[in-house]
Structures are given as structure tokens and as C-alpha cells.
Design brief:
Elements lengths: L23 E5 L4 E6 L2 H8 L4 H10 L8 E5 L6 H14 L5 E4 L4 H11 L5 E6 L13 E5 L7 H10 L23 H9 L5 E4 L2 E4 L10 H23 L8 H20 L14 E5 L7 H5 L6 E5 L17
Parallel strand pairs: 1-3, 1-4, 4-5, 5-6
Antiparallel strand pairs: 2-3, 7-8, 9-10
């Protein structure tokens, strides 16, 4: 369905609904099961079996603290053809699209590549654990998160979904995080360095604490940045639509333009409070600017067609500190 209000965001950097951002979908591949929401691991055991991969992934997600209240699940019997999974997802989003995180019980390289390509056409993210270090060389997706772990039952990336789903988009970094129930991966320092260079990360014990070694997608963008961008875009489109629905009309004058501008400012202010946008140390306000084109400077053709493209904003990403150097001097 064509959107009436479209928000385009370009990240000038090299370095869904609010509810949807907290809902993971597990795409099961062991049997055909209709799409449904599950509030506990027992229900999933009844649907897929307590020994299934689907059950183990769900147990990893529900086993975190905090954990999402619900998990969406869809079962598609996999027959070695990844396009069947893509077709099922395309059919699903026509009727049930209020989910954001994708995990799948089949993580072979061809399936991961297919799902990664598909996820880039959506405003969603795909989390997967692999046992193949070379897989990362085949991927470069801003919306795919791949973690390496030698244990096929670790499902550490899928467990990380729980952390993502229970915090505001963009509000935390995904490095240094502990996933309950997972032991350290067997990976050498050289392999880990190469893994990071290729856009993946792993799970190790450092200074006695089990933790994720990075928090990036396969094109080396940070997960929190991607989620923050998605949140701003989805929320701004949603609020513009609510504005149009809840008013007799948005007048095509400077008052109506101010109404739309207010929506943009409100969402950017919320994004500042969530830690997505940088806060100014002195004013404590978000580091963003919103520029508009007034009615009198808008083309007559746009006015006649009831199209307004005159709001342009710029914001500074807050980012996060992942490493650093502290220098000290001891003197007598």
C-alpha cells in the first residue's frame, strides 16, 4: 500500500510501530505451522516439539532477563529451496507485519544469504548465529547481524534479539553484552580480528565476564544506529499520518506547514531522549536543525497537487564509546 507521508533519511557518516520494534519473529523450517504469537516456551513446545531448533531458539530468547512478552512464529517446511522461505515472508507481511527482528531455524549459508538479501528490502533486522567463519565474506547488509559460535546450539545472536526487543531502539550498544545460557566461543584472536573486519562478531570471556565482542551489522554499521534510523523513520511517518487523520485537514499554508514541522521536531526530540541523537551539553536539547520551505516559496504545481516536500532536517548521532586510551603520570 502506497504511503501518503514518506520520510527519507540519509546517514551522512561512514562510521514499524513502537510495538513492532519489540516483537521478534522466528521463521521455523521443520514443519508447517500458521503464523501466531506465543507468550511462553511451553506453547512453542506444543507447536514445534521440545527438541526442535525452533524451540531452542525461542528458549534462548525467552531465557534472557528481561525478555519480550511475546514471540511471533511461522512454520514453513524447508525443502532446500530458500525461495520458498522468501515467498512465505512476502505473503506474511501482507497480513502480519508488526514485527521487527527475524530469526530462522535454518542457518545454512544459502538460506542466510537469501534472508539477508530479503531483509534489506524491509525496515527490519535479521539476527543469525553461524558456525562458518567464511560466511561473512559473502554478506554486506546493513540490516543483517551475524555472530560466530562453534556450538550449533548456542544461538547467541538470537539471544541478543531479546536485549534489542526489550530496550528502546538506538538506546544501547550491542558490544559488551552478556547472553544468558551461552558459553564463550572457541575462536582465536586472529580469527576474531578477521571476523570483525568482515562485519561479524562473536562471544568471549574477557576479564572474567562473558560478552559480545562487537555490535555491528555485516556492512560494519552499528546495530544501534540502524535501529535508531528505523525508529525515526517509522515514527515520523506514523505521526504525520495521525496528524492528517485527527484533523479536518492539514491546511496548505504556513500554519499547516508548522503542524508538520512540529511532528518532525517532536520525533527528533524523542529520539534525543532515547539516546539516538546527540544532546547539547549546554542547552540539553538535541543537536538537530529543521529547515522548511514556506507556502509562498513552494511551487504552484506542488500546491495544486497537494504535495509538500519542504521539510529537511539534520541531526547528529549520539554514538557510543567502545574503546579508548587513558594516560596517567606518576610523580614524586
Amino acid at each position: 500500500m502506497k504511503k501518503d507521508f514518506i520520510v527519507n533519511i540519509t546517514k551522512l557518516t561512514e562510521a514499524v510501530s513502537q510495538k513492532g520494534f519489540g516483537l521478534p519473529l522466528i521463521l521455523g523450517t521443520s514443519k508447517e505451522v500458521p503464523y501466531a504469537l506465543y507468550g511462553g516456551i511451553e506453547e512453542i513446545g506444543e507447536a514445534f516439539g521440545a527438541e526442535s531448533k525452533e524451540y531452542k531458539i525461542a528458549a534462548r530468547i525467552f531465557g534472557q532477563n528481561p525478555a519480550p512478552q511475546e514471540i511471533a512464529m511461522l512454520g514453513v517446511l524447508y525443502d532446500e529451496d530458500p525461495t520458498k522461505l522468501i515467498t512465505a515472508l512476502n505473503t506474511l507481511i501482507d497480513t502480519d507485519n508488526d514485527w521487527y527482528f527475524l530469526a530462522c531455524s535454518e542457518n545454512s549459508n544459502d538460506v542466510v544469504q537469501a534472508l539477508s538479501t530479503w531483509i534489506d528490502t524491509q525496515m527490519k533486522m535479521y539476527f543469525v548465529t553461524t558456525q562458518d567463519l567464511s560466511l561473512l565474506e559473502l554478506l554486506e547488509s546493513e540490516q543483517t547481524v551475524v555472530m560466530y559460535h562453534n556450538d550449533v546450539n548456542a544461538y547467541v545472536a538470537e539471544g541478543l534479539v531479546s536485549l534489542a526487543a526489550t530496550n528502546d531502539p538506538g538506546s544501547l550498544t550491542f558490544k559488551f553484552k552478556t547472553v544468558n545460557g551461552v558459553q564463550a566461543s572457541d575462536i582465536t584472536s586472529a580469527e576474531l580480528t578477521k571476523l570483525h573486519q568482515d562485519g561479524g562478531f562473536s562471544y568471549v570471556k574477557k576479564m572474567g565476564v562473558l560478552q559480545t565482542t562487537e555490535g555491528i551489522t555485516t556492512n560494519k554499521e552499528y546495530i544501534d544506529v540502524v535501529m535508531g534510523v528505523h525508529y525515526i523513520q517509522a515514527k515520523m511517518e506514523e505521526e504525520c499520518m495521525y496528524l492528517a487523520i485527527n484533523n479536518n485537514k492539514i491546511p496548505y499554508d504556513n500554519t499547516g506547514i508548522a503542524m508538520l514541522t512540529g511532528v518532525a521536531r517532536d520525533v527528533l526530540t524523542r529520539a534525543t531522549d532515547m539516546g539516538i541523537i546527540l544532546r547539547n551539553d549546554e542547552t540539553l536539547k538535541g543537536e538537530f536543525t529543521v529547515n522548511i520551505t514556506k507556502r509562498e516559496d513552494t511551487s504552484k504545481n506542488d500546491i495544486a497537487n497537494r504535495v509538500y516536500n519542504g521539510i529537511k532536517w539534520t541531526a547528529s548521532l549520539a554514538g557510543a564509546i567502545h574503546s579508548g586510551l587513558i594516560s596517567g603520570y606518576l610523580v614524586y
